[in-house]
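YM 10:42: D-lyxose ketol-isomerase sequence, as discussed on the call
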Amino acid sequence: MKRSHVNDIIARSDAFMRSFGFVLPPFAYWSPEEMKARVASDCPTIFGARLGWDITDYGKGRFDEFGLVLFTLRNGDASNLKTGQGMVYAEKLMITRSGQVNPLHRHAIKTEDIINRGGGTLVLQMYNSRSDGTVDEESDVEVATDARLRRLKAGDLLKLLPGESVTLLPGNWHAFWAEDGDVLMGEVSTVNDDLTDNYFREPVGRFSAIEEDAPPVHLLVSDYDAWLRAG
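YM 10:58: structure's back
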């Protein structure tokens, strides 16, 4: 992806979130220079927890067809999960565009609630996992949608209107996209680790390679190692 395109997506995404009354925290708007200074002084958690903007085209170079905008608002650490104490949770805002597919994947550790916060209809295609972690294309999938247990055939589509949500457990394979308009999504989950806990059915690049045709207005989490790591 070109950096100029990333800058434009961030600006439009912020406006879309604000249209539903969601205002991001101050660090969403810091310049790269301010982000570097603040992480080195009083905000090291931003780097360690990978908080901030995350825009991906899954390495396909066709963001309008395959892509997602994410902003990680808060996130704990895997050590918290081991002890059951401290910050054992995470929260994201995401935007999926109408017709923009997010490929089939699962998580081994993370449990997540996916929420339609507003816009069009959020559509999820769902499968269970076999014992070896691969996609089970035969067994029914049982999921909780706003406390209501629902049973779906393998590969069936679950459609969530604004305000509706679904709880996805480790091993629940899911792909998703929007219909009838872009969707603002919420994610409330256990601790999130996008570096090690995303398993895709088809090989994809979770983080996009960036062509630096313009200076970054705001950093992506995938920029942090290059921009923020000490030394």
